[in-house]
Amino acid sequence: MGLEKKRIAVICNYKLLPSRVGGMDYFYWAFNAACKNEGITVDWFFPNRADFGGYKDLCIIPNDGRNVEHHFINYLDRNTVDYSHIVTHFVELCTTFYKTVKEKQKAKLIAVDHNPRPFGGYSLKKRLKKRVKGVLYSQYIDLFVGVSKYTSEAILNDFGRFLKPKTKTIYNGVLIKDIVPKTTERAKNNPKFLVVSHLRYSKGIQDLIDAVYQLPESLKNDLIIDVYGDGPYRARLEELVNNTALESVFKFKGSVSNLATLYKEYDYLLQPTHMECFSLSILESLAANIPVITTLVGGNKEVITHGENGYLFNVENTHELSTVLEAVVCGKLSVKGSTRSLIEKRFSIDTMVSNHLELLKNAV
Fold it and tell me: Does pTM top 0.70 for this prediction?
């Protein structure tokens, strides 16, 4: 089946913020442009409207004040429309939403899973509940898409391995051409570090603070760790920095719109996260030729090779992280060579868009 004369709906539980323009925003813009080139009409359903960047070219259906799932159902109830495909991003899987949509539309339903799983797994009660939901509602979803092999495996573990025939992996990608690579040699001694993260407990930045606190005092004098991002845990992180007298090390920069040109000013990205599906900030950092120090969770292991383009450590193991940091700061450990080529070959946004377009030919 070709791509001609289609109309699709994309439902994204993803708030559009001009202060936080990242990989998914670029994907939405690029996917919309690619669909337009193929003669595909796309109706977009977000929690809010926006006209910054490429959003001015998207047909965003105005939200009526409901959550994004209810907003879409309400739109179907009030309008006569036939979609060939309905795609969801950042929407909970295997719920009554998919059953209701399937009752109203003959479209193929594609559910893209970006959701990280908690370190240590779900409680027994929640695991059982997910299995029941898988039995009841997975039949209404034509294709499950994980953004990493880890995510695809998590879908099967959550809802049942009987879903394997209709589960596919499509890696997230980044807009490489806008990411300015570091062309100067990385500092071997006392390198500069950055963190790019939403500031919440699960991102593990409190572990990084503890790991730095464990370093010898002599290494803290010139250490620089700039933290980009914002979130509900920022005040607590700043309190921890003050309590450990690390104000000269950690600088909270807030959310910025020019990260693509900032990575090259640093030598390593630090990401001590507790849970991750497939991190776009890791891909962006590697595309900027900046190695990554991160945890052995989620899809991180699918892109970081220890000692080759970064270093991996166990979640919440602050002693292990401190040891890696000390070795990197002292020059005992260092990543040599380019980290950008891997992203160009496997994780570009063009590849991501092409793979998602391919889904519209056949959802199963």
Answer: yes
